[in-house]
Write a structure and sequence with these properties.
The protein has about 160 residues and is of the alpha+beta class. The chain has helices at about 5-10, 35-50, 70-85, 115-130, 135-145; strands spanning about 15-25, 55-60, 65-70, 90-100, 110. It is about 40% helix and about 25% strand. The structure holds flavin mononucleotide.
Amino acid sequence: MNISDAAVRKFGRAMPTFRLIYASRSVIAPEQAEGVIEAIVDVSRIRNRNVGVTGCLILAGGRFAQVLEGEQHRVEDIMASICRDVRHTDIGILEQKMVPQRRFSAWSLGYAGPSSFVKNAIVAQLARNLRGSPRSIEALLRMMDAFCAEPVPPDASPAKASDLP
Ligand SMILES: Cc1cc2nc3c(=O)[nH]c(=O)nc-3n(C[C@H](O)[C@H](O)[C@H](O)COP(=O)(O)O)c2cc1C
């Protein structure tokens, strides 16, 4: 690994790595998103693994956010490809710097789409509820509030509050 002397001085015996985080806006049609993203993740995992880059990608509310970590020139090469990619736009770098160690060392590219996030959160929360913790009812309600905070489509609106029993 090509670690500069300055980084070694700054981070001691840890394995410093370059980390880049960006956010962008997906231009993939929602009905095609699942297949297109699966293809992106498949290609990315192979390429990232080949050059020792690790990271994580999320997609929520039509926005991507991705962390890439590894040797700086490797991360920058991949980022150059990502910037040329017409499947997203409005790319903004949120952070790029040396950090003491990798956070996603087990992942050539972890991917968390909204559905797996929601599913995992619900499964974990329901497991706590089924074990009968009274406080977890409040946590479940808060989670339902958060997941249902989107504007309500007309056919999902309840009856007028004054009509409810
Ligand atoms: C949101 C998003 C994230 C991506 N992440 C990666 C990635 O981590 N690694 C990667 O090799 N390609 C990634 N890609 C795909 C690249 O943009 C590109 O298509 C691929 O690396 C092939 O590169 P090339 O077109 O320069 O040959 C991503 C694409 C998008 C839209």
